[in-house]
Structure formats: C-alpha cells, structure tokens
Amino acid sequence: MRTEKKQVHWRAHAVLIVVLVAMIYPMVWLVGASFKPENQIFSTMNPLPLAFTISNYITGWTATGNSFTLYLANSLTVSLCTVVANVAACSVAAYAFARLDFAFRKFWFALMLGTMMLPFQATLIPQYTIFYQLNWINTFLPLVVPYLLATDAFFIFLMVQFIRGIPRELDEAAELDGAGHVRVFFSVILPLLRPALLTTTILTFIWTFNDFLRQLVYLSDHSRYTAPLGLNAFVDRASGSSYGGMLAMSVVTLVPTVAVFIVSQRRLVEGVATTGIK
C-alpha cells in the first residue's frame, strides 16, 4: 500500500515538473535570447546564450527614436495614478454598498456586477467620443479619470465581500461615540480593509502597466507612449529586422511587474483569501 502511494506521489511530482518547465521555458528563452547575438537568436532552442552580449540592450534602448526610459516613466506615472484613483474610489463605493441603506441598493449592486460581463470593446467608441469632445485625447486623463468614478466592479465586489465580514458592532460602537459615516469609514473600516486594499493595489498596478489596447486608442504622441506602446513602436520602426533589441526591451518591460508580484505574492494571496471569494 505504501509503495503504491509513493508511486502516485512521484508520478504527480513528475507531471508538475513537466508542467512547470513548459510554463517557465518561454520566459527563460526570452531572457536568454536578449543576451544572444542577432544571428543566434533563432538558430537553436537552447535558451542559454552561447556568446553573451549586452549590445541588444544598448541598441534597443533608443531604437524607436526615443529613450525607453521615457516609456517606462510614462507607464509608471499612469499606473501609480490609476492605483491611487482605483483604490480610493472603489473603497468608498464598497463601503456604501456594504454599510449604507439607500433606495434600490440591491438593484444597483446587481447592475454594478453586471458590468463585469460587459466587454471593454462594447463601450470603447462611446467613451472615445466623450473624451474626444473633452479634448482629452493624447493625454493620460482617459486612462486615469474613469477610475475616479469607481468603474472597476471586480474590486468593488472584492472589498464589499471583505467589509461584510467586519462585525457591525464596531460601526455601532463608533456611532455611539458620535462618529458619522465618514469617521467610521476612515477610523474603523479602512484600517481593517488593508488586505483588500493591498490586493487592489497590486492587481491594478500589474494590469495597468501591462495594458495595451486602451493606451493604444488614446495615446498617439510618441512622447506619451507607455512601455507596451514603446515595444509596439519598436517593432513597427525596426520592421522585424532587429529582434535582439525588441527582446531586450521586452525583458526590461517585464521587470517592474515581475518584481511587484514576487515581493507582494504572499500578501496578494492573503488578501484574496480573506475577502470571502471562494
């Protein structure tokens, strides 16, 4: 019996190892190819460079006509502003749905959840028309301002689930001391909402930094390009003739999000696990 269990145990581990190799191989290949000479990138499946070089990073950094530093700075600016806007707006909206009694609350909550099934492409043209009339095209405003209106239903739902797990007795105790809804929110709910806030911060940053379509629609000036658009511009200008530089800048673009995920992985899992989402 023990022998059979050990065999199943080793088989399961063997399958997991195969899956792990299949998942991380593209990433390893990308990093290795970025250090290969141009003529060796596609000559072998071996991800390790036979001749190590950093020329791809040197040439790729300015291959689009602008320094890639500009693209990274734009991406960080948009991502950080979006994080602040999304966390602030979603936390306030979640408190309203979880704690306040107002007319048709369940209906509005269900309607808010229904927006999660609405694809971005369905609202793209109406939103573009509005932002065009406001003269916001080719600025960062269309990428940040909508989040001030609590448009991300997923994070509102996540925070609502967390707030519902906070005992109402804490709110009632604060109200007995004369605290209003604003004081209750900032002094009672917000400190206890920290795990959900961290989850929202991490996921919002990663998703915004890697966003391509929204930024492609609203940004046309190369000086305002973000890192994903910078990679796209690199491909367009290089016309596929300099894969080394493109791969090198792809690695550079991955560094911020991978670093954020590695540093905050434990808190991310902890935050999702404590929100009541099964």
TrEMBL record:
Membrane topology: Multi-pass membrane protein
A Pfam family: BPD_transp_1
Source species, domain of life: Bacteria
First-listed, main subcellular location of the protein, grouped into a coarse class: membrane
Residues in ABC transmembrane type-1 domain copies: 72-264
Transmembrane is among the record's keywords: yes
Keyword DNA damage: no
Entry similarity comment: Belongs to the binding-protein-dependent transport system permease family.
Protein name: Carbohydrate ABC transporter permease
Lineage: Bacteria, Bacillati, Actinomycetota, Actinomycetes, Pseudonocardiales
